[in-house]
Amino acid sequence: MALFARLSWFYAKQMGKSILYMGTYTFWFIMLMMRFLIRQYDSFGKTDYGNFVGEMTLIVQAAMLLFMVFFYKLFSDEYRFGANLLFAGSLRITALKIAALFANHLLFLAFFTSLQVVLVWQFYRTWSLPFSSLYTETASYIAAYWLSPLVFAFFLGIFTALLFGKSRLSFAWMVIIWLAIGPVNTQLFSRYFQRLPFSDVRSLFYIGPLNMDDVFRDVIGYNVSLPTYMKLLFWILTSMMAVWAILWKTARTTKEKAAIIIGVTLLLAGDAWVFPHICTGSKLVFSYADLDQENDFYRTHNPTISPSTLRYSIERYDIQLEAKNSVHAKVKATLRQIQGNTLSFVLYHHFSLKQITDQTGKQLPFIQQGDVITVKRSSNRLTDEWTFEYQMNDSAQIPVSPRYLFLPSDFSWLPTKADHAPFAFVNVHSSPAPVSMQPSHPIHYTLSFHGTVPFYTNLPLRSDGMYEGVVSSGITAIAGMFLKERIGPWQIVYPADWSNLEQDWSVFERHVRRIHHDTVQMFGLKGVKLPTNIVLLAPHGEQRSVYRSDHLLLQIDTPYSLHSQEGTLMYLPEILTEGLLWKETHSSRQKEVFQALLTRWFQQQLALPYSGGDLTFDVALSVDSPDGKTEEELRQLFGEYERLSDRKKQKFLALWYKQIKEGADDSWEKTIQLIRMVREGQT
């Protein structure tokens, strides 16, 4: 123990005096401070503070290579100049030297990393981010993606010194290893890794975030999970095993060789224990490949549901959500006016249905095919109560885990009466769009949630963890990293990485009120009030809105402040009008063109920047595979539209919307004729 202490003190002085070692920490610290300054004086008003820590990815990658070089030089120099001969050249001495170096490296890393965590926290406080789990989760991210690669770098540097000694080949070797399994490969080979789902064993070869600009998502938090830590631990254990194995050449006695064999065996057993945890439990919303698989599912699965299996109504749902080790749902549906012995329901296909029982406790036979559940019954009762029990599995499209839930009201997270799937493709240029699943008639809901994370639902709170109410068009259930704030009559649910809303809310509110009011007036919408409960969350990076009588789900994915014209406000007209005017997916090919013109009209009225490029080009892109004739008609339509006055543009848009909703034949010629009639005052 005394020898270990002397070695530790010796190496501590060496490391403390090293320009390379301490200079790497200084470089790391200066780069972090520069990020603070850049954010403080950012002319664009960027406020996505959750993704702030991802911006240091390149700096950590550089620090990893510098540490590898330092430990290689330190250890190889000893052997080159014979410093190892000062001690008995045994395995024990070499192992003690490595352990002493490692202990010092861990102490330095712990100190400087803790200092940086405190600085990042202070940065958050400076920008008025309310204290929440964001702070502790940020520390977890820094431990995973800043600290762990630098621990890994130590063993890689030592292994290189033991393998090559003082050789120029060692530097080429370190660069190759750094590129192959260091965090830098995630950036260099991102196109390759984006094709790998998290369950693919090849994902083991990236240990950095797949996209350094997207390390944090609303509700879900950071791209850090148990598999992330296990993946890093796997590589650290593997590098330790490589170092211990190569010490075989220093072993002289049978006892030393046995110690090496035992050590390698234990480390190999550790890797074997870690390995199964690497490919399960990752946060799939961050996986490009898993999202592509989900999209492909809806390209190829378009279920046909027989109308004869939908002859029933749902009067009530009693829901129990259990979010502990996994997420389980127990949903009792009260059915009325049942006709027939075969009923169909729509339930998201990633939710695994375990059993269905009727009100007597008898299990009912069912088939779950994709998003459709078909249930057989033997009873002839006109009313019944069926209890559906299922596990809610995580997916790239619908994030579900004990740490986060995102279940919007227009999604089939409950067994739903519907004749279509919850997603559909409406444009070849886009991903599948959500299709509203909930009926407009009132349904009585009770909901109990048992979990440890913040929870939101639009149902009134009755008691601790119990919510109940009568709601039209479904309920929203959200759990995870978000905050709630009340400003005047508004209750706002917003991401945990946003700063205090009060200073930005007045501008944002004014634009929301104006767009809502003008849309309702222009298109004669009745009974469409603006809810005072607004949910500002977008875990998938989507831009859409879902209006309900008691809440507005406004998925506005923005890294900028709410009052930013270029980053936030200019997208509001498109998002809000889409949710107000098209409550279901509309198949008309003219809808997208209509939305482009309506968005432009609002942007002009509100003096907002235009969110696209050349409008003629954008309008052409709105139509799937336009031919030459269609492109010419669109140019003509745009030219005719631009010659209208603002008042007549408004009138034309109102008439065109009515024409589309009534099921016109999608004739561009008729639309052009409508513009001319409006211009000439014939309507």
Automatic annotation (TrEMBL):
Assigned keywords, A-Z: Membrane, Transmembrane, Transmembrane helix
Q: Please give the superkingdom of this protein's source.
A: Bacteria
Regions that span the bilayer = 20-38, 58-75, 96-124, 144-164, 171-189, 232-251, 258-275
Name of the protein described by the UniProt record = ABC transporter permease
Q: Which organism is it from?
A: Geobacillus icigianus
